[in-house]
Specification:
Blueprint lengths: L28 H13 L3 H18 L7 E4 L4 H13 L4 E7 L5 H13 L4 E5 L2 H14 L6 H18 L3 E3 L4 H4 L13 H11 L13 H10 L2 E3 L9 H12 L12 H15 L4 H10 L5 H8 L6 H15 L3 H8 L13 H25 L1
Parallel strand pairs: 1-2, 1-4, 2-3, 4-5
Helix pairs in contact: 3-10, 5-8
């Protein structure tokens, strides 16, 4: 850690987040915001269980006459795997598991998915994007020098789940996203995942191929259609006392799941992006955000987080092998990759985007909340 970096006294977030703020006690805004938001978003104990059972009853009722009652995104990682386990074994739901294959799955992730669907007796739908097209798209984002290359996979996963839900006449999507392991993430470290215009414009400028198989959503029209269909994302893990280490033990014991190590490291590219591209080009170590969230949720201590951060992101031999694999798969030589990595960083907003639409939607949501609040006060 650079000596000039200031670190939060409670978590391990520091001034590599340019927007971080500290109070007089040296506690950062991320810690405060975590606990403020947790009070609204987390439902634990008997209250959480009762609310989740009510949600499950609604899902079963809506899907009663259908082959499946919900759609479940499955990556093979801890969170989505535990959602699959909990939805089937604890709630008695009948989800269709959906996986987006972008060509970067680790063998462990593929094995975990196979084991999960077999042990839980789930049907699996896998969407395989054309590799040459997706490779070209990833190269475009590398050449554009923007920070959130992973928005491509994140965007496509949601698009596939929405398409499958529409085709099957379903409105409930079970998500592995959760508050207690993912709450903290600086806005400057990511970009709006749904901004399809930004994706298309970057590809148009730097890419060689037209997007034909890459699944998309995010236009104003598609958002309105989702509202009309009343598509609902169900965050099961926010309604239980979710502990990641305990979840790993359960998955290993019950489903033969195997640990791949690291947050989102079920993907080879995600691992390389988080452990090499982000630190090298953007001076960002996402472990700080992931570990800080676990500190705030009481799953690890600050001392454990600092010990984890003291470890290298890669062992030298491991990095050489990972580089060789990634460069070969992307069709790059190391000198060409280094030239791209050394390009000046640019904002997603330097390219055509849908920021204006996001701002308008935020204004509309604030106005609707205000109207709802006024109506509520008048009724009382």
């Amino acid at each position: 850690m650079n000596n000039s970096e200031r670190v939060c006294k409670k978590c391990v977030m520091d001034t590599t987040d340019p927007d971080i703020e500290f109070d007089r006690d040296g506690i950062c805004n991320h810690c405060k915001q975590y606990h403020e938001r947790a009070a609204r978003l987390l439902f634990s104990g008997k209250d959480g269980e009762a609310k989740l059972q009510q949600i499950a009853s609604e899902i079963k009722k809506y899907g009663r006459a259908k082959e499946y009652d919900s759609v479940l995104g499955l990556s093979g990682g801890v969170d989505s795997s535990f959602v699959a386990y909990y939805a089937k074994r604890k709630l008695g739901l009948r989800p269709l598991a959906v996986h987006f294959d972008n060509g970067w799955d680790t063998e462990l992730a593929a094995g975990n998915i196979e084991s999960i669907v077999q042990k839980l007796d789930l049907d699996l739908y896998t969407y395989r994007v054309d590799w040459e097209e997706f490779k070209d798209l990833q190269l475009s984002f590398l050449k554009a020098s923007v920070i959130d290359i992973e928005m491509l996979t994140d965007h496509a996963i949601v698009a596939v789940m929405l398409d499958v839900a529409k085709e099957r006449g379903l409105k409930h999507i079970l998500s592995g996203s959760n508050f207690v392991t993912e709450a903290i993430m600086p806005k400057s470290w990511v970009y709006m995942k749904w901004d399809i215009r930004n994706i298309r414009e970057i590809q148009k400028r730097f890419g060689q191929r037209k997007l034909k198989t890459f699944p998309t959503y995010g236009s104003l029209r598609s958002k309105i259609r989702q509202r009309i269909r009343n598509v609902q994302y169900i965050y099961i893990l926010n309604h239980i006392d979710y502990n990641r280490q305990e979840a790993v033990k359960t998955l290993e014991r019950e489903l033969g799941w195997k640990n791949y190590g690291g947050k989102h490291c079920e993907s080879i590219f995600t691992r390389f992006y988080q452990r090499y591209i982000l630190p090298t080009k953007f001076n960002i170590d996402k472990r700080k955000a992931h570990l800080s969230t676990l500190i705030c949720s009481g799953q690890i201590t600050r001392e454990q987080a600092l010990d984890e951060l003291s470890k290298p992101l890669y062992a030298p031999k491991e990095l050489r092998e990972e580089k060789e694999y990634v460069f070969k798969k992307l069709g790059l030589i190391e000198e060409e990759f280094d030239r791209i990595i050394n390009l000046p960083t640019r904002s997603h907003l330097d390219y055509p985007n849908s920021q204006w639409m996001y701002n308008q939607l935020c204004r509309i949501k604030r106005a609707l909340r205000l109207i709802s609040s006024i109506i509520g006060r008048l009724r009382t």
